[in-house]
Amino acid sequence: MDSKGHASESSMEVRQEPPNPEEKPNDAQSFPDGGLQAWLVVLGAFFGLFISFGWTNCVGVFQEYYETHQLASFSPSTVSWIPAVSMCTIFIAGPFVGQLFDHFGPRVLLLLGSTIHVFGLMMASISSQYYQFILCITTWFLKKRALAMGIAASGSSMGGVVMPIMVNRLIPIIGFGWTMRTCAFMMLGLLIITNLTVRSRLRPQPKNFGVASFFAAFKDPPFLLLAMAGFFYSMGMSPELAGYLVSMFNGASGIGRILPGYIADKVGNFNVSLFAACLSTILVFGVWLPGHSHATTIVFASLFGLSTGTYTAMSPALVAQISDIREIGLRSGAMYAFMSIAALTGSPIGGALITAAGGSYWKLQVFTGVMLAVGSAFYGASKLYLAKVAALGKTSNPVSNTGSPSFRHHRNHEKAFGAIAQPVMEQHIDAMVVGLGFSGIYQLYKLRELGLSVKAVEAAPEVGGTWYWNRYPGATSDTHSEVFRYSWDKEDLLTYPWKTRYLPQAEIKGYLKHVVKRHDLEQHIQLNTRMESAHYLDNSWQIRLSTGETFRARYLTTALGALSKTYFPQIPGLDTFTGEMYHTGNWPDAHDFSKKCVGVIGNGSTGVQLIISLADQAKQLVSFQRHPQHVVPNGDGQVTAEDRKRINKNYDEIWKNVKTNISGHAITESSIPAMSVTAEERERVFEQVWKTGNGIKFLFGTFGDIAISDEANKEAADFIGRNIKHIVKDPIKARTLTPPGGFNRRPVTANGYYETFNKENVDVVDVLNTPMEIFPNGIKLSDGTVYNLDVIVFATGFDAVDGMYHEISIVGQSGRTLEDHWADGAKAYLATTMNGFPNMFVVNGPQGPLTNVPPLIETQVDFITGLIATAETSKEKMATESQNGNKQLGPVIEVTQEAEDGWLAKINEIGAMTVFAKGGSWLTGANVDGKKQVFLYYVGGVGNYNRVVQAEIDAGYPSFNRFY
């Protein structure tokens, strides 16, 4: 396996201290999704809603009491204005209370509201705002948000169960006044718990008052309760039974607020809400309207409570999911203010309909059913619209800097009502990093140094990038271990040294995990998450993730890895094989190949390492190769005490050499032309490196012109050919393993490769001259030879450099996609950025040096971070200009088209001068069928590349447009 990886940084500069871990709870995009404090908030909200909306949910009992006692001389329609005005007052205060919540948080409101609520029991109270308790929960939960909200919301239903029975029992015994006082004392005790437990995870942030720009569905549960109590009475039931039916309704509603919340977290909030709304409509027209018996009424009360409890509990979850978490107070308030219209008019309209029908309830029933049907239709229309938005990859609101919602399609939600979009909250951050191998980890580290809010996502369940996925047997770096690490943490070299000269995959992955922990980077990392799309809008990137989350980030850095997109060649019969099939780039955690016949297709660095490792395991192993490789021993072994002493003493000098030479490796490069010495001297030099090891050293450390002189290159290739013939005993195998051309591919290095083919169970087959096809039991060659196999392993490499980018929808300025920009071949200025894609950066992108990856990544990440730091400094000037009336949306970093084209021309010019132009390998994309072939690498040397980058920095970034 090649030196595949991701990023880092250089220099021993003094670093800022990492952010205080205590500040993490105020991170708007980090949700605990559990823990003692989070569930205590849910408990407190439960009790708060128990005594506030739980009390409101038993208005049917009070409606009946008023009509038969204090207000017996008034019509039901007139009496209904009392609770209607009360409910309207609660809801219409929403925007103002929401603004107070955003400014001061929940504590002040709860203390004030508790006092008013207890001592003025029937008054509309700012503490009884349904959404105020829900707001705090949204800051603690994301993936379990619907369940947490449902549990809290069930408090209002539980209150609706207990309160009517309690009031009905107490009024005849102690009278109306003492009943109210008893309830008030009970509420005082519960509100104490609420005040002690309910708090927001985020600090209050004052905002200017504004109206939320979205439509919320109309629902009026209090009116439905009033109508039920009156209906039960007219059917000949006693007022006491009517009160118990209200309790039944609320009991079922409690279940309807918890269980659907759990389901919604699995299949989507909108899916569950739409189902509940439709079910409620069906129950009204199918059960309530035609029903005339007590049994039917009881069944309706229970089922209707279940369905309406669902969409009542889900409404806050829907708002939270499509809103910026820091604006939920105002948005929720605006929604409930809109609902106040229904709260004010619903009950009087219902009373008027009963009167107009001569005491019959059929008009009321039809009105209720129609309103629910209209609400269901709006739910359906919303979902269709969201599905359309998700398909187009656009935001639902062009005003991007106001916390506007955006949406994406949830793959795991398709099972509910088909492929329907799931709305998600758009979270605002400064920067997003995608990929957490060497590149992404270092980029995250550097951006945090700038003091930016950063989110880093990784598709794998662990950090490591390429070194997580490529865990096949024998996976090893081909770079000396002392320089296959970050150079900027010199202290870590002493505390975390390597034991061997070359590093196996597990050690590299372990090292990267160690770096993440050592520098406290876990808090910014989200695993098992892919970036599915990125769209440049209003000077920032709208990023959709596989989890359903949407982020708006000023800067986007992709660290996907140059060798990450696995490649399967187009082999006839590929889908017919009935045995086991694997790719080395996505290896299973553990597998036993003993007693099995294994075919390995491909023999690059990965194939070579795998063949050596499997030869002692497999019953039979066959290498199917198109192009033989020049494989040089790597000279692996233990790092001795003397080696360690030398490395520690010369650490700075070693890294200086690595960053200024051609190869980027810890070798002494030669400047002597191969043909300037005698044949005997050439043989001696080649033999010395062959014995001590390393393919890169064989290319650059023997003679200085092997990569650019055909004659010198032939001498090197012939030397390796002679060694193959000497090592491999079978002349047919030796001939098959000997490359016919020059030493013009990326050097492959491994101990014991050619010796492996001396084993009786190992064979090699030329499939360039005898093409193969796959059949159910194995592989068949064009000459009729058949190989029956249990396992086929594809060591066929990668769609290098740009392969992973074709899996993601990336849209830059003016709607131009990255796919279009790279239609004639992938290109990026200094392998880091592209014209037309402002504020987006790639690490180890197209046209970067062919070199040891970690030091290259350090150069590129430092360059990107410097650009961002300059842009952030320009924000101060932008703020000044903005105050003078010039509209400024944020800093813009964009390379000019001329600079990008100029760099590509230089790449092609230098590449054409080398032997790599004739190699036909993944360095130009030639290994992928149908891929546009361009030089994907700068072969002028990492030292020269670093000098070009530094010149750009020293000149003040002349290749970029103005930063603001």
Automatic annotation (TrEMBL):
<feature type="transmembrane region" description="Helical">
    <location>
        <begin position="241"/>
        <end position="259"/>
    </location>
</feature>
<feature type="transmembrane region" description="Helical">
    <location>
        <begin position="74"/>
        <end position="96"/>
    </location>
</feature>
<feature type="transmembrane region" description="Helical">
    <location>
        <begin position="146"/>
        <end position="167"/>
    </location>
</feature>
<keyword id="KW-0285">Flavoprotein</keyword>
<keyword id="KW-0521">NADP</keyword>
<feature type="compositionally biased region" description="Basic and acidic residues">
    <location>
        <begin position="1"/>
        <end position="26"/>
    </location>
</feature>
<keyword id="KW-1133">Transmembrane helix</keyword>
<dbReference type="InterPro" id="IPR011701">
    <property type="entry name" value="MFS"/>
</dbReference>
<protein>
    <submittedName>
        <fullName>Major facilitator superfamily domain-containing protein</fullName>
    </submittedName>
</protein>
<dbReference type="GO" id="GO:0016020">
    <property type="term" value="C:membrane"/>
</dbReference>
<dbReference type="Pfam" id="PF07690">
    <property type="entry name" value="MFS_1"/>
</dbReference>
<keyword id="KW-0472">Membrane</keyword>
<dbReference type="Pfam" id="PF13738">
    <property type="entry name" value="Pyr_redox_3"/>
</dbReference>
<dbReference type="InterPro" id="IPR036188">
    <property type="entry name" value="FAD/NAD-bd_sf"/>
</dbReference>
<dbReference type="InterPro" id="IPR036259">
    <property type="entry name" value="MFS_trans_sf"/>
</dbReference>
<feature type="transmembrane region" description="Helical">
    <location>
        <begin position="209"/>
        <end position="235"/>
    </location>
</feature>
<feature type="transmembrane region" description="Helical">
    <location>
        <begin position="173"/>
        <end position="197"/>
    </location>
</feature>
<feature type="transmembrane region" description="Helical">
    <location>
        <begin position="38"/>
        <end position="62"/>
    </location>
</feature>
<dbReference type="GO" id="GO:0022857">
    <property type="term" value="F:transmembrane transporter activity"/>
</dbReference>
<feature type="transmembrane region" description="Helical">
    <location>
        <begin position="335"/>
        <end position="358"/>
    </location>
</feature>
<feature type="transmembrane region" description="Helical">
    <location>
        <begin position="271"/>
        <end position="289"/>
    </location>
</feature>
<dbReference type="InterPro" id="IPR050775">
    <property type="entry name" value="FAD-binding_Monooxygenases"/>
</dbReference>
<dbReference type="GO" id="GO:0016491">
    <property type="term" value="F:oxidoreductase activity"/>
</dbReference>
<feature type="transmembrane region" description="Helical">
    <location>
        <begin position="295"/>
        <end position="314"/>
    </location>
</feature>
<keyword id="KW-0274">FAD</keyword>
<feature type="region of interest" description="Disordered">
    <location>
        <begin position="1"/>
        <end position="29"/>
    </location>
</feature>
<keyword id="KW-0812">Transmembrane</keyword>
<keyword id="KW-0560">Oxidoreductase</keyword>
